[in-house]
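User: I'm writing a tutorial on reading structure tokens. Could you give me a worked example: one chain, its sequence, then its tokens, then a sentence or two explaining what the tokens reveal?
Assistant: Sure. Here is the example chain.
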Amino acid sequence: MSEIPETPVVPDLTAVFQAPPVTLLARADAVQLGDVIDTIDGPVRVREIVQRQHTYDLAGDPPGHVIRYRTLRRGGPEDVPPLHRRRLARTMQIRVRRSVQKFGRLTGHTKKIASHNPVKRGWYTDPGGYDAACSCGWKHPDVHASRDGAAGGWLRHKAGQLSEAAYADNPALLWLWTAETTHPSLPPLPWHFKKVVSRGTVGCEVGDGIAFADLDMLTVARARTVMGAWQAVFDVDPEGTYEDYRPGPVDTLDGARPGWTTLRLSGTGIRTRIILDARIDDPDSGPT
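And here are its predicted structure tokens:
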């Protein structure tokens, strides 16, 4: 088996956004410019959205990537195309990291910034630093040197509340965060998510999450390598895991096609079903 490629470095999203990041699930048609999404090439900050009839093309660059536009001899600068793209069905839910500044008021959470132990010194009052607290009862343990610093501490609390709500709503999102935190060398995948809302899904209860990743854009060898890395972090389901090879040529309505290889890795995590799929046109690779 070939070596696992190094995971692309993810910069501090707080520095990229200039505000604390929020993790949430969003449909493809709800992604906003500036959001960070998952792709097979690692995290990408969206700077181009193309809407088609039933799909959305989300394109961008690694978070923190500096875009240097080419300057034309005449006229203004020439647009540089995004480095990475991901095409999604309009209603597909994906993981999104978004600046907390893009969220409005949060019910039950009102910012409370106050001077810490102020002392009156003649005509001047020494605030003694600033405390950050919230109407929900939370209070930052540190005393901040400035009012803006205290406000930033409260924003981190707000971002945490929004992210925790997303994790609680879909266990698959929490499972993914846990896997990536525990095993930071895992190769990136373009995840999308569903939630079990009725009985009938084998091995799942109502409320459980399902995490999917499509690896169709990889070569067969690379897909096997990536699946091999991820199968170590969850319980593999032998009945749902298989490899199949269809030799070509195959006659279709669009003409003859080469053979293809189908790979599937299926398993379970905590309240989560995990499915990694790949159907790759590759007439030279059979089962191993």
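What the tokens reveal: The first strand starts at residue 21 and ends at 27. Helices lie at 13-17, 147-169, 171-182, 220-230.
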